[in-house]
Design goal:
With about 425 residues, the protein is of the alpha/beta class. The protein has helices at about 30-35, 35-50, 70-75, 85-95, 115-125, 140-145, 155-170, 230-240, 250-265, 285-300, 305-315, 335-345, 355-365, 375-385, 400-415, 430-435, and strands spanning about 5-10, 55-60, 100-105, 130-135, 180-185, 190, 200, 205-210, 220-225, 240-245, 275-285, 365-370, 390-395.
Amino acid sequence: MPTQMRLLGFLIHGPINHTILSWADPRDERVAGLSSIRYWQDLARLLERGCFDGVFFADLPGVADRYRERVDEAIRYGVCWPTHDPAPLVAIMAAATEHLGIAITLSQSAHHPYAAVRTLSTLDCLTGGRVGWNIVTGHVRGEHRAYGLDQLEHDERYARAEEYMEVCYALWNSIGPGAIRVDRAAGVFADPAKVRRVTHHGRYFRTDTIGPTLPSPQHHPVLFQAGSSGRGQQFALRHAEVIFSIQPHAAGMRRFMQQLHDAARARGRTAPVRVTFAVQPILGGTEEEARRHQRELVERIPIEAGLCRLSSTLGVDFSRFDLDQPLDELDTQASRGMMAAMSGAMAGRRVTLREAAMHYGASTGILQIPGTPEQVAGQLVALWRATGCFGFNVTPTINNSSIADFVDQVVPLLQREGVLRTEYRGKTFRDTLND
């Protein structure tokens, strides 16, 4: 178990994060923030003031189009649309901070390995080594349609991803130690003998080139991955420095940790398995006030908006089913693991499709923690200790006031408990995570 809890802000570069219609709250600033550099810089400073290790941007580079086989609900309710690119935010947020790491989701389906390495390493150089990459294979159909691609089956996406990473590592290793000389007197920028050409002709990718950027302070960005299936967990254990997961309750978190540890032992992995779980704190002056805020989040969401997002994530058009039928009775081709997690999301009882859609619309299946600052801090510490996880991806409800409330009211309690840093000591994102 780590000696200190790790915190990452959990965001999306769109009108909402993980709560549908949060943009409709009069206090919410996100829509205006889509056209504002200052918004993101203020947010970065806020997270750094809270001693967060970094910020983690999820991304869905395509519109949700599964529900009723159309995009109307995604457009009408702003369900993760529009979908702005998170990559420019790295430079914007880094310019306003000194220590905050910034991890972005960059899908392998939409980018050639050379383009991914070029973008990520350029940003890592610019920020002094504060970049992370959340590696995803692209599970949402709308993303593949947007780029004119055929969506591969689950296991083949991971086979392609393995080759993708092989190319990325080769490009990162292309420029050897001491290759960059910048010898003004001799007029020599770099030593060709220390730069290796990458020639790859595989099943999915071809490239014949050299590394496109200067070596970054981290050599390569911190690698994140959210493997949930057996195949996904194997990929994550091979490549990820931090594994991210959404689990709806503490039991799911403990089960996920046990599965990963078992898989790691089977692989002979000796490196620690570092997992962050997503949480959504909902603060109130009293527990009842916090639970009222929680209910208000759900009451604002149209059922079709929740179904739109659930359909897109699970790859099923849920308009075909009875809303009041138990979720575990539905005959779908959706991920059994995700369906089981959603079925048990509410206090271990059977959940109807209607309840699942509304719960998913409010938090995307993320564990919500309503309560006073003292209760939220206490529950985070209890979860951290009970699961042995690395820390938490903290997603807000209202942007950015709920983040400010967490930083001002919960962070000091965690620091007083001695489980959260009070200052940064590392220079790079990897240093901060390893500190």
